[in-house]
Amino acid sequence: MKKKILFIAILLINFFAVIAQDRISSTVNSNWQFCKGDTSKTISPKKWSLVSIPHTWNAEDVNDEEPGYYRGEGWYKKTIQIPVSWKEKEVYIFFEGVGQVAEVYLNGKLVGKHIGSYNAFSFPISSYINYTTQESTTNELIVKVDNSHNENIPPLAADFTFYGGIYRDVYLKAINKVHFDADNYASTGIFINTPVVNNTNAIVNIKGSLVNKTEAKRKLIISNKILMLKENYI
Fold it and tell me: Do 15 and 29 belong together in one domain?
């Protein structure tokens, strides 16, 4: 017996988020320098090694014959190029995951600190960027990472390795000064849920907070479109 099933997928596109916000996202994963174990930002150049993100300093010592593996500090640094055109935007540094405590510095100034290995985080960095009159400007990004055992950071024990390092992608993001709240736990600032979905009806809720970083009031039109994608299969 053949049974025909209609599959309906709801695709929700928020045109304000996609078009009007004009979010720019660029990975900064290559050409990082790394040093393990130092607690000073002024480390001898001889101690730095070239790495790419994702990276962990426990890639080898968890599999060697010595018991245990290194849990402590590691330092990452990178020269980043930021377009001068971004001066008219809000710029963020976004990390998908760092194990397990991260302190982020830009041009020698502390941008922010994050605790926890398994969730993304971001910091606004516009006020820390050194802009020049050229097409792009050079800035030094430094990240101190620590995966030491800490009784205040769960989980305290597990059947897996507590790897240290910047183990997921890193992005520079630039958005317009009028935008959905980008400081909302590294989210897009737009939240969607569907409390009711059945064969005949569906309810879609959309919420988000708008932020205006300009000095003038702005009139906005926020448009949402729901597309019904129908697919038949046997």
Answer: no
